[in-house]
């Protein structure tokens, strides 16, 4: 997922652009046509997309860390192989998205630097720690479940490369969610201690998962424009409601309970009512106060710095070989 | 801001889904050279049996038509519907045509 704009600022209006071109662009988008990299687009559309897609890519990459934490401690070989494949998928998702963002004229290095300097945001969910094995189940089930909810509509987003990346990602996310639910299901059917572990993970990940859909609609200033541009297709609150409606029965089916005393089926609305999300915590985590935010960025910076000599050596080697080949011809 | 020339070049990736199909564009990867580009393309785009063959091409080597020329290039085909078989009406009793 991780497609929610967390800057909380209103996008700056574009500098003077030819109104006829803007109108033609808006008409194409309203008509559900796809915009492709070399097509003319308003500067604000380009900037908003670069921010949204790169933020999404960063989230995939940082999202490898909480789960990577459990690869060496997976309870058996089957779970270990699955978790390895899942974490590799997250890396792949990050790469599809970086490539999509690059078609808008931003370089991979610029995006990496924006992440490492703290200028770019990523999903708040990854700044929470994975304390037990059950957290791996909860992440797959809830976090990837929320991701799917957000991403499925984006397969029809107006920017072609983004939409195509979303199609690939959605196909793969379904495996992530099912393997997570399966972990929870097994724990919930296990010893009382294992069941407690599953419930504890649900208790800790429930609220952060609801936050993944971003601030409430009335606090989401860019929603209207993003909906018009088809780079967002449902509002934060609509998606959050959908997630609650789908997830609550899944929890009940395995004897777990979402940690919300206000949670109640509302027959008249045909939806679950649920308690207010702790938005103060959300904004604090967006601003960098997440329980493990510092560790996450330290890990990314270390990986980037430790890999510098490899990137440089490969580049120089390729240049030398190309020169030698040219000389031999 | 980084020196763009320090970045590994960008390669476009094409995958043949199975024998008998053409290679189809699926995305791009960064790699120092062609061999590494194939390896990265394999890891990034074929984790689920999506293909039996890969092509990688330096992105800088692709020449694309300009969207601004789309009308000049493609609209002339619009009024040449006689290039399609359905343009010709043939009586129903004539078979195998």
Protein architecture, described:
The complex is a heterodimer of chains A (329) and B (97). Chain A is mainly alpha-helical and 329 residues long. In chain A, 64% of the residues lie in helices and 2% in strands. Chain A contains 13 helices and two strands, in the order H-H-H-H-H-H-H-H-H-H-E-E-H-H-H. A two-stranded antiparallel sheet of chain A has the order 1-2. Chain A is globular and about 70 Å long. Chain B has a domain at 7-62: Ubiquitin-like (UB roll), CATH 3.10.20.520. Chain B is elongated, with a radius of gyration of 21 Å. Chain B has two helices and three strands. The A-B interface holds A 36, 38-40, 85, 88-89, 92, 95-96, 99-100, 102, 107-110, 113, 164-165, 172, 311-312, 314-315, 317-318, 321-322 and B 1-2, 4, 6-8, 10, 27-30, 32-33, 36, 43-44, 47-48, 64, 66-67.
Summarize the structure.
The complex is a heterodimer of chains A (329) and B (97). By secondary structure, chain A is an all-alpha fold.
**Helix-residue proportion of chain B:** 10-25%
Question: What global shape of chain B is seen?
Answer: elongated
- CATH topology heading of the domain at 7-62 in chain B: Ubiquitin-like (UB roll)
Low-confidence stretches of chain B: none
- Percent strand of chain B: 15-25%
Write the layout of secondary structure elements.
The complex is a heterodimer of chains A (329) and B (97).
Chain A: H1 19-30, H2 43-62, H3 64-68, H4 77-102, H5 108-116, H6 134-151, H7 160-188, H8 192-211, H9 223-228, H10 236-253, E1 264-266, E2 271-273, H11 279-289, H12 293-306, H13 308-328
Antiparallel strand pairs in A: 1-2
Helix pairs in contact in A: 2-4, 4-7, 6-7, 6-8, 6-10
Chain B: E1 10-16, E2 23-30, H1 34-45, E3 53-58, H2 70-74
Task: Provide tags for this entry.
heterodimer, A: mainly alpha, two-stranded antiparallel ribbon, 2 strands, globular, B: 97 residues, alpha+beta, Ubiquitin-like (UB roll), 2 helices
């Amino acid at each position: 997922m991780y497609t929610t704009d967390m800057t909380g600022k209103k996008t700056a209006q574009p500098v003077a652009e030819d109104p006829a071109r803007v109108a033609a662009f808006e008409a194409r988008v309203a008509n559900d046509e796809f915009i492709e990299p070399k097509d003319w687009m308003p500067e604000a559309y380009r900037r908003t997309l670069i921010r949204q897609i790169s933020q999404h890519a960063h989230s995939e990459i940082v999202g490898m860390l909480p789960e990577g934490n459990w690869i060496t401690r997976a309870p058996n070989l089957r779970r270990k192989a699955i978790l390895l494949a899942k974490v590799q998928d997250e890396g792949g998702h990050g790469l599809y998205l970086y490539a999509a963002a690059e078609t808008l004229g931003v370089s991979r290095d610029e995006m990496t630097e924006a992440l490492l300097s703290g200028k770019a945001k990523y999903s708040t969910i990854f700044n929470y720690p994975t304390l037990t094995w059950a957290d791996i189940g909860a992440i797959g089930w809830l976090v990837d479940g929320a991701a799917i909810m957000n991403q499925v509509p984006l397969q029809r987003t107006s920017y072609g490369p983004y939409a195509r990346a979303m199609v690939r990602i959605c196909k793969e996310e379904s495996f992530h969610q099912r393997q997570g639910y399966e972990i929870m299901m097994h724990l919930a059917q296990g010893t009382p201690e294992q069941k407690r572990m599953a419930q504890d993970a649900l208790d800790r990940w429930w609220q952060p998962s609801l936050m993944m859909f971003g601030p409430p609609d009335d606090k989401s200033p860019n929603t209207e424009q993003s909906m018009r541009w088809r780079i967002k297709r449902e509002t934060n609150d609509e998606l959050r409601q959908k997630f609650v409606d789908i997830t609550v029965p899944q929890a009940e089916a395995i004897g777990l309970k979402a940690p919300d005393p206000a949670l109640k089926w509302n027959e008249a609305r045909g939806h679950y009512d649920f308690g207010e999300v702790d938005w103060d915590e959300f904004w604090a985590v967006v601003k960098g106060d997440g329980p493990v935010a510092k560790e996450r960025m330290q890990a990314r910076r270390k990986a980037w710095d430790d890999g510098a000599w490899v990137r440089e050596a490969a580049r120089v080697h390729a240049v030398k070989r190309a020169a030698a080949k040219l000389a031999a011809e | 801001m980084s020196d763009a020339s320090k970045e590994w070049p960008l390669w476009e990736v094409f995958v043949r889904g199975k024998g008998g199909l053409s290679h189809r564009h699926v995305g791009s990867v960064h790699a120092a050279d062609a061999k590494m580009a194939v390896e990265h393309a394999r890891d990034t785009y074929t984790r689920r049996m999506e293909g039996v063959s890969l092509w990688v091409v330096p992105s800088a080597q692709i020449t694309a038509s300009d969207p601004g020329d789309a009308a000049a290039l493609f609209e002339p085909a619009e009024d040449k519907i006689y290039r399609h078989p359905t343009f010709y009406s043939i009586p129903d009793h004539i078979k195998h045509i």
